[in-house]
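Re: magnesium ion structure - here you go.
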Amino acid sequence: MVKPRLTGLIKIILLLCIYGVVRLLESRGLLLPYHVQVLSLCCINVILVVSLNLINGFTGQFSIGHAGFLAIGAYLSAFLTVKMHVPFLAAILCGGLLAGLAGLAVGLPALRLRGDYLAIATLGFGEIIRVIILNMEAVGGAKGFSGIPKYTTFGIAYLTAIITVVVIRNFVHSDYGRACLAVREDEIAAESLGVNSTYFKVLAFALGAFFAGTAGALFSHYLQYMAPTPSQIGFVKSIDILIMLVLGGLGSLTGSVIAAVVLTIIPELLRGFAEYRMIIYPILLIVVMLYLPAGLMAGRELSLDSLARLCKGVKSSAHYS
Amino acid sequence: MPTTAELMVSNLSVQFGGLKAVNEVSFSLQPQTLAGLIGPNGAGKTTIFNALTGLCPVSGGEISFGDQRLTNQPPHTIARCGVARTFQNIRLFKNLTVLDNLRIAYHKNRQYSLLCSLFRSPRYWREEEQITARAKEALELVGLATKAEHLAGSLPYGEQRRVEIARALMLSPKLLLLDEPAAGMNPQETLTLLELIRRLRNELKITILLIEHDMKLVMNLCERLFVLDYGHLIATGDPKAIQSNRRVVEAYLGGTGA
Amino acid sequence: MSWHIAALQQLVNGLALGSVYALIALGYTMVYGIIKLINFAHGEIYMLGAYFGFYALTLLNLSLLPAMLLSMAAAALVGVLLERVAYRPLRNSPRISVLITAIGASLLFQSTAQLVFGASFKPFPQAMPFRRIQLGPVFITNRQLLIFGVAVLLMILLHVLVTYTKFGKAMRAVARDKEAALLMGINVDRIISATFALGSALAATAGILVGMYYNRIDPYMGMMPGLKAFVAAVLGGIGMVPGAVLGGLLMGVAENLVVTLGSSTLRDAVAFAVLIVVLLFRPTGLLGKKGIEKV
Ligand SMILES: Nc1ncnc2c1ncn2[C@@H]1O[C@H](COP(=O)(O)OP(=O)(O)O)[C@@H](O)[C@H]1O
Ligand SMILES: [Mg+2]
């Protein structure tokens, strides 16, 4: 057992090291601007997947409309910085808040709908948001929203991702998170223990949507151009996020982080085989599901403790050989 | 003894489609009584528990607890009024640890705010420590202190039943409803359970109403019995009186003739 | 043309489009009914069906009916293989992983089609000359009639199959309780395969009909109609054959009416708006039964 204080310190140092290494490699020219871009995208996807995990993984709801929240954050923040000259940080927060409000609205059907019915309703919500944006001339309508300043740096994306993961971890390990787990595991038992399942479903949606909105704000100021297409803010994007979540393992935060990073990088690595990339990726997906149906981490977490145990195991087995 | 009954059920009816599972049942329960609800299978006992805890809609009648009206309130509100229960077909959170099962049930007593939890304020830490301590106490009480970190679903049946009782206790209930707590237990386990239930009543001073088929246990434990048959309350009284009640004997032995 | 005649015209157009949705929705609903899987790749089977029909008409120079039958058979084969390779091994896995596999299969079909058939659209050969028939105040084209006729014919056949044949009974038994069906000596695997074959064949027909209707096919044509057909199936009450038909027709009509009211960009949102409103009032769809949970 490593002491909590100590593990906290080790984690902070590790996170700082990662940042330092990226910066160092970048300054030495070992990481090209393109690589750093991909890393920023990794961070944005981490936020999206972890926030979806709160809804689908920890609270047991089934949302496949997460890109709708991303869209709200992306467009509102871009509108604010471009047309209103609002500072970026404030725009991120506004994007998150409006998305969170939308999350409240989407959470409401969750009170009546279950499983696949809820899934298709959330997907519908996402598409409705997309079509509304498509019809809003103030944000470019069908032509898309261009001329968004490039405010999203690796540093900002990295920091936001860390904050998101920490906050959601804290939530999950509190009474609030436990109530969500209870709703996921057995709604009737949860209710009979005084858990207002309605409240916690809506709370999970609102909180998850808030973070997806901030990710959206980072996303639009990263791409500098938003198009109201299914693959950028519609159901195709939602499904991308869902894939990362399931591959990482529902209910595992470290699984989400790993899957988001790996699945953002793989398509970039496959860029060389542009022709076959779109074939390799789905095959990979199917094969992973066939062999790891519960995802990479299958509900477990990767922790310093488990790493330490693993190292010890390796050391002792090395000792005996 | 206070003259006002804690739990009052008057003319309670529950209907499922054409079936009247509970028919105009009235009874009351004094504080700190240890009472039993008995009757043949399908008599409507579990349904009465479900009605009391808000898990199925009441089609007629009134339920009150102290000065609170419970009729058709949502289950979480009823739980917050101090009514806790276990389930006939154990409903533990099987994929969570025993400790987490118990900590979840502390929910209604939790004080810290959402922001405290998101940023782990000192208050959060302090209270989480208390919650864990409370949960361990409750586990101690049911004799499962060593199983805190086990997954609830991995425990043997009898232990799961006791975890469920401990979990209900985390609500600090005033009324505890136990649905067939001894089902599937061996005689030794049943004996321990009997002791446990007695202690709960005597030490925690709570009212307990239990459904049980094991007549020896019921007669041994309960001070008051309610007998249900085809949704009707056919007898009320102390175990002695019930044992010699003709209608009860008929219901148990000659139910097919009716 | 006054607005109610326009509306009536859109009703006709809507019924034609709706019967295509219904044909696709039937496949979704049958598969869902039997293995509780949202077969996300179903829209791609519809797309493949259109391509099979295209090559049967152009390369093999077949006439419409044999081309249709050939395409149905080929699509059925694809559907059966898909279930065998990608879904069957996961039958006891968490449902969400099967769903992800289905999404993977859908992407795979799309990109393979793009690679094999080309990314750009192909003009669909016109197997019959275009005609417009006046029907009171509204017009109906012979293609619309064909779509409607074929769809209705297939639905009747399916209904007879499911209700009156031994196979249909077995299928319903498996849908209700797989274990019990197994104990009754029903070959569950074979019934599931047959369900995929049937659903895929219907989707292939829909693909050819749409190809003829819009004159063009492309590798992505399955995405939106697939999604909407699924929505239609849910709207009607997923797992129920009449529900799929009702949902499909309703959706087609609603979409076309919105186009009449002037907004074609809102069209894609209508399907979903209708769905959400319906689900809020009837959480298991129009014809769906309410599930009760015993405590
Ligand atoms: N949710 C329900 N829907 C329909 N019927 C029910 C439901 N719950 C219980 N019943 C019926 O009500 C009657 C009483 O059941 P129950 O209360 O479980 O009996 P028991 O006394 O054995 O606990 C039974 O006939 C049962 O089938
Ligand atoms: Mg019972």
